[in-house]
Amino acid sequence: MASYRLRAALAVVGVLLLPISANSAQKPDPADRVLPDYDIRLLTPAGPLSLDPEARALFDQLRQERGDLRVRPNPWQPGFRSLSARGRVLSSPRAGQPEQVARQFLSRYHSLLGLEPGDLATLVKTREYRGAGDPLLHVFFKQSVRGIDVFGAALRVYMRADGSVVEVSNSTARVGSLRRRPRADLYNST
Predict the structure, then answer these.
(1) Contact (CB, 8 A) for 49 and 78
(2) Top-level class of domain 49-177
(3) Which of 63, 66, 152, 165 has an alpha carbon 20 to 30 Å from 88's alpha carbon atom?
(4) Could you tell me which residues come within 8 angstroms of residue 137 by beta carbon, excluding any fewer than 6 positions away?
(5) 129-173 confidence digits (pLDDT tens)
C-alpha cells in the first residue's frame, strides 16, 4: 500500500512540474540569435497603382455602363487583380462556348487586368465547371509561356448561363515583364 501511495505522490509531483519544465524549454536562450519576422504583405503598395490612359478610359466607360465596380489593385503590375460589379454583370449576355465568351471579354478588357493583347495567347483553359446549386459557370485558365507554365499564374472568369460575365480574378503576368534567365552551356562552360 505504501508503494502505491509513493507512486501516486510522484505522479502528482510530476504532473505539477511538467508545465514549468515545458515553459522553460520553449523560451529561447538570450545568447541565441532569433531571426526577425518578415511579412511580405507589408511590402505591397497600400494604394491602387495607376492605370494607363487607355485602361482608365475603359474603366470609366465600364463604370458608367455597369455602375459601382469592385476592384482589387494588383500590387505587382498596373491593372486590377479582381474586377466585379457587386453581384451585377460586367458584360451583356453572349452566345457561344464559355471559353470563347471569356476570351471575347478578356480581349476587350485585358488592359484593366494589366495584360497586353499578346498575353491572352498564353492563357490555356484548365477547367470549366458549374457547381451543384451554383448559378455561375467557372472558367479557369493557367498561363503558359513557350510551353512552360508560369507558377501561380491563373485567371478565372465567372459567368452566368446566358454568357454575361459577373467577375474576373487574375494573377497572371505580362509576358514582357517575365525575365528570361540565360541558359547554362554545360559543354562550353569553364
Answers:
(1) yes
(2) alpha beta
(3) 152
(4) 98, 128, 129, 130, 158, 159, 160, 161
(5) 998 888 899 999 999 988 888 888 899 999 999 999 999 999 998
Q: What is the layout of strands, in order, in the sheet containing 70-73? A: 70-73, 80-84, 165-170, 148-159, 137-145, 123-129
Cβ atoms of residues 49 and 74 within 8 Å = yes
Tell me which residue of 68, 70, 65 sits closest to 48, measured CA to CA.
Answer: 70
Q: How far apart are CA 76 and CA 113, in angstroms?
A: 11
CB-based contacts of 151, cutoff 8 Å, min separation 6: none
Which residue has better confidence, 103 or 20?
Answer: 103
How many CB atoms within 10 Å of residue 158? 19
Spans of all domains in the chain: 49-177
Cell of 65: 455602363
Percent of the chain that is helix, strand, coil (3-state, to 5): 35, 25, 40
Q: How many other C-beta atoms lie within 10 A of the C-beta of residue 57?
A: 12
- What's at 35, amino acid-wise? L
Residue listed under C-alpha cell 502505491: 4
3-state secondary structure of 14: helix
Give the separation between CA 156 and CA 165, rounded to whole angstroms.
11
